[in-house]
Amino acid sequence: MEPVRMCVGCRTRDSRSALMRVVAVDSRLVIDEAASAPGRGAWVHPSRTCAELAIQRRAFVRALRVSGALDTQTLEEWLSAMEIK
Description:
The protein is α+β, with helices and mostly antiparallel strands and 85 residues long. It has a single domain, classed as YlxR-like (Hypothetical Cytosolic Protein, Chain: A, 2-Layer Sandwich). The chain is 32% helix and 24% strand. It has three helices and five strands. The chain has helices at residues 48-56, 59-64, 73-84, and strands at residues 4-6, 13-15, 20-25, 28-32, 42-44. The strands form two sheets. The protein has a three-stranded antiparallel beta sheet. Strand 1 (4-6) and strand 2 (13-15) form a beta hairpin. 21% of the residues are buried. Residues 5-67 form the YlxR domain.
Protein backbone atom coordinates (compact mmCIF):
# COMPACT_ATOMS: atom_id res chain seq x y z
CA MET A 1 0.00 0.00 0.00
CA GLU A 2 1.40 3.36 -1.07
CA PRO A 3 1.31 6.40 1.24
CA VAL A 4 -1.46 8.93 0.55
CA ARG A 5 -1.03 12.71 0.77
CA MET A 6 -3.36 15.67 0.24
CA CYS A 7 -2.76 18.22 -2.50
CA VAL A 8 -2.70 21.71 -0.97
CA GLY A 9 -4.12 23.12 -4.21
CA CYS A 10 -7.22 21.07 -5.02
CA ARG A 11 -7.41 19.44 -1.56
CA THR A 12 -7.90 15.92 -2.94
CA ARG A 13 -6.08 12.87 -1.67
CA ASP A 14 -3.72 11.06 -4.00
CA SER A 15 -0.79 8.69 -3.84
CA ARG A 16 2.55 10.15 -2.89
CA SER A 17 4.01 9.28 -6.30
CA ALA A 18 1.34 11.37 -8.08
CA LEU A 19 2.22 14.51 -6.10
CA MET A 20 5.37 16.63 -5.81
CA ARG A 21 6.80 17.88 -2.56
CA VAL A 22 7.56 21.56 -2.11
CA VAL A 23 9.66 22.99 0.75
CA ALA A 24 10.53 26.52 1.85
CA VAL A 25 14.20 27.52 1.75
CA ASP A 26 14.95 31.11 2.78
CA SER A 27 11.37 32.24 1.98
CA ARG A 28 11.50 30.62 -1.48
CA LEU A 29 9.43 27.67 -2.61
CA VAL A 30 11.70 24.91 -3.87
CA ILE A 31 10.67 21.63 -5.46
CA ASP A 32 12.02 18.67 -3.50
CA GLU A 33 12.31 16.15 -6.34
CA ALA A 34 13.77 13.44 -4.12
CA ALA A 35 11.12 14.11 -1.45
CA SER A 36 13.77 13.83 1.22
CA ALA A 37 14.68 17.41 2.19
CA PRO A 38 14.59 18.12 5.92
CA GLY A 39 11.74 20.07 7.43
CA ARG A 40 8.09 20.52 6.59
CA GLY A 41 6.87 19.91 3.09
CA ALA A 42 3.69 20.63 1.18
CA TRP A 43 2.35 18.26 -1.47
CA VAL A 44 0.78 19.46 -4.71
CA HIS A 45 -0.15 17.93 -8.05
CA PRO A 46 2.41 18.82 -10.73
CA SER A 47 -0.09 20.95 -12.65
CA ARG A 48 -0.42 24.68 -13.10
CA THR A 49 -4.05 24.59 -11.90
CA CYS A 50 -3.26 23.08 -8.50
CA ALA A 51 -0.16 25.23 -7.99
CA GLU A 52 -2.05 28.44 -8.81
CA LEU A 53 -4.89 27.47 -6.47
CA ALA A 54 -2.41 26.83 -3.67
CA ILE A 55 -0.66 30.16 -4.25
CA GLN A 56 -3.94 32.06 -4.47
CA ARG A 57 -5.30 30.48 -1.25
CA ARG A 58 -1.93 30.93 0.54
CA ALA A 59 -1.96 27.19 1.17
CA PHE A 60 1.83 26.88 0.96
CA VAL A 61 2.27 29.47 3.73
CA ARG A 62 -0.13 27.55 6.00
CA ALA A 63 1.14 24.07 5.16
CA LEU A 64 4.80 25.02 5.60
CA ARG A 65 4.02 27.14 8.68
CA VAL A 66 6.04 30.15 7.60
CA SER A 67 5.26 33.77 8.35
CA GLY A 68 5.12 36.30 5.56
CA ALA A 69 5.01 35.80 1.82
CA LEU A 70 6.89 33.14 -0.12
CA ASP A 71 8.72 33.66 -3.41
CA THR A 72 6.96 31.38 -5.91
CA GLN A 73 9.17 32.13 -8.92
CA THR A 74 11.06 28.81 -8.76
CA LEU A 75 7.82 26.82 -8.68
CA GLU A 76 6.33 28.80 -11.57
CA GLU A 77 9.49 28.33 -13.69
CA TRP A 78 9.44 24.58 -13.04
CA LEU A 79 5.78 24.33 -14.05
CA SER A 80 6.42 26.32 -17.23
CA ALA A 81 9.30 24.02 -18.15
CA MET A 82 7.12 20.95 -17.58
CA GLU A 83 4.37 22.29 -19.87
CA ILE A 84 6.83 22.71 -22.76
CA LYS A 85 7.80 19.03 -22.69
